[in-house]
Amino acid sequence: MPPTTETQPPWQGGWYRAAQAQPSANFGPRPADARISLIVVHSISLPPGIYGTGHVQALFTNQLDWDAHPYFQQIRGLEVSAHFYIQRDGALWQFVSTHDRAWHAGASAWRGRPNCNDYSIGIELEGLEGQFFEAAQYEQLAALCQTIAAHHPIDAITGHEHIAPGRKFDPGSGFDWDLFIQRLDPSSRHLVQPESSST
Q1: Alpha-carbon distance 121 to 5, whole Å?
Q2: What is the overall mean pLDDT for the chain?
Q3: 82 close to 122: Cβ distance less than 8 angstroms
Q4: Starting at the edge strand that comes first in sequence, how are the strands of the sheet with 92-94 ordered?
Q5: How far apart are CA 92 and CA 33, in angstroms?
Q6: Which domain CATH number covers 80?
Q7: What is the DSSP letter of 98?
Q8: Does 145 fall in a domain?
Q9: Using CA atoms, how far apart are residues 130 and 112, in angstroms rounded to an integer?
Q10: Checking phi first, is residue 115 left (phi over 0); if not, alpha (psi -120 to 50) or beta?
Q11: Residue 10 domain-assigned?
Q12: Which domain holds residue 137?
């Protein structure tokens, strides 16, 4: 008999079995010497502040109807992705293998290292800068970060605003870093470093 889900490894080829897979075409190879050491937390909602629309999944898979909302004209033709996306209810999606380079960070640097896309994993939270996030999202984010850190040599977890200060502001002031830290196992809490560092 084939192995049951419970006996299968949690990861396969950089895909996390607990996530709903929806592969994106918006990715590329990491540099040959890349060490996947950083997790970047983002926030996104489409249209901004409107939740549960499915538009984020459509954006990351190049299926967004640009004429469905006036705001979409501002981002028309945008090709982006993240490795993971966590909805308000904690539902988890994956778009790019963690082995590959997703297009989430843009111009960025962390601890003197530029091009964060090369060595980071991007996690988007359904939300809006300055507004609060749901308990289910903190729980899912903590669990996801811990399983990623068990699978890759992660040495820091930070926000998009911290790797691109002045250019990006997510996840923003509504994200409670202290609460997130509390949700992590004590052995993982040192990884969270919510401060800007572009040098």
Answers
A1: 25
A2: 95
A3: yes
A4: 20-21, 92-94, 84-86, 120-126, 38-44, 156-159
A5: 29
A6: 3.40.80.10
A7: T
A8: yes
A9: 27
A10: left
A11: no
A12: 21-28+36-191
* pLDDT value at 2 more than 90: no
7 is a domain residue: no
Q: What is the pLDDT of residue 7?
A: 78
Strand 101-102 to 27-28 pairing: antiparallel
Please state, for a pLDDT cut of 70, what percent of the chain lies above it.
95
Checking if the pLDDT of 151 tops 90, the result is yes
Would the pLDDT of 198 be above 50? Answer: no
Residue written as token pair 């898979």: 61
What residues are labeled active site?
124
Question: What contacts 24+ positions apart, CB below 8 Å, involve 131-137?
Answer: 131/49, 131/172, 131/174, 132/174, 132/176, 133/43, 133/88, 133/171, 133/174, 133/175, 133/176, 134/88, 134/89, 134/90, 136/88, 136/89, 136/90, 137/86, 137/87, 137/88, 137/90
Whether the pTM exceeds 0.90: the reply is yes
Q: Provide the number of structural domains found in the chain.
A: 1
> Tell me, what amino acid is at 108?
S
Rounded to a whole number of angstroms, the CA Rg of the chain reads: 16
Query: Would residue 43 count as lying in a domain?
Result: yes
